[in-house]
Design brief:
The complex is a heterodimer of chains A (227) and B (53). By secondary structure, chain A is an all-alpha fold. In chain A, 79% of the residues lie in helices and 0% in strands. Chain A has one domain: Four Helix Bundle (Hemerythrin (Met), subunit A). Chain A contains six helices and no strands. Chain A starts with a helix and ends with a helix. Chain B is rod-shaped and about 80 Å long. Chain B is built from one helix and no strands. Classes of the chains: A mainly alpha (227), B mainly alpha (53). At the A-B interface, α2, α3 and α6 of A face α1 of B.
Chain lengths: 227, 53
């Protein structure tokens, strides 16, 4: 069943991405001031929404773990956080490449960029913490606490472009009342988000299968030690 | 307009997919390692069961 869902999601993802790439590269015109480089937004913004959706899901799963002490929620939170961290890395990399052309610099300590880097470091710390603690319940409890704290930073990243008017552009999407893009230019962002969410779901399912295998290995090891 | 504009757009797209591909390779390698470990532990349990009188 899991394999079937993975194939269906992979198909949806491939179709949407192919159509979107065609539209982004061959149909949409260059932006008046930025030229071709503005197209990075079609991966930058969907990646951050995918990443943040994942971190939020991990927050819910971590809260569920703390409420029920069921390790399945912890495994799910770990899987979702790891995948979301990959998307957060995409956001930082694509943003730096865009900044190199538009601002003339790879990096600046602007409020949005700095809070995003802090967010990345918090969740990278979450993954390191999980490797450092052997005892499963202690690992799950501390990871859940880090995940909950991490979500506070997500809110700061989200609002930073409204609170501080520094280097990073302000809201451009119409859903945030930015209104800086023509409707035809905005739609591929949402379609790419759907495609990346499908990809993220596939990666989480693969990662969950690995969590199942790890649990099986642990229980078999315990069984072997009883003989 | 910066003449490197199109080239850097390509770098941006390439970086996004490269990061995701590296992560997928990392997942695939871990999957292989876990499967090998699972087989090894299963064999260990079977051997232990055979040895118990």
């Amino acid at each position: 069943m899991r394999e079937k869902i993975i194939f269906v999601l992979a198909g949806i993802c491939a179709v949407i991405l192919s159509l979107d790439l065609y539209k982004i590269l061959l149909v949409l015109p260059n932006e008046k001031d930025q030229g071709a480089i503005y197209r990075i937004i079609y991966f930058h913004v969907p990646s951050i929404i995918t990443g943040f959706t994942g971190f939020f899901v991990a927050l819910v799963a971590s809260g569920m773990y703390l409420a029920t002490r069921n390790l399945k929620y912890d495994a799910f939170a770990a899987a979702v956080t790891e995948v979301s961290l990959a998307f957060a890395t995409v956001v930082l990399a694509t943003g730096m490449i865009w900044g190199r052309i538009i601002w003339g610099i790879w990096w600046t300590w602007d409020a949005r960029l700095t809070s995003m880097l802090v967010c990345w470091l918090i969740y990278a710390g979450y993954m390191m913490l999980r490797r450092a603690i052997e005892e499963p319940t202690e690992r799950a409890r501390l990871s859940a606490i880090v995940s909950i704290f991490g979500c506070v930073d997500i809110f700061i990243v989200w609002k930073s472009i409204e609170w501080f008017r520094t280097q990073h552009p302000g809201p451009v999407l119409s859903v945030r009342e930015g209104g800086g893009m023509a409707p035809g230019m905005e739609a591929p962002i949402y379609w790419n988000w759907v495609a990346l969410m499908c990809l993220a779901a596939i990666l989480v399912m693969v990662r969950m299968r690995q969590e199942d295998m790890s649990r099986q290995i642990d229980s078999l090891r315990r069984m072997a030690h009883t003989y | 307009m910066d003449p490197r504009n199109f080239l850097y757009m390509f770098y941006g797209f390439a970086a996004a997919w490269l990061i995701l591909v590296v992560y997928v390779v990392f997942l695939a390698l871990r999957d292989r390692k876990l499967r090998a470990e699972l087989d090894r532990v299963r064999r260990m349990v079977e051997d232990s069961e055979k040895r118990v009188p």
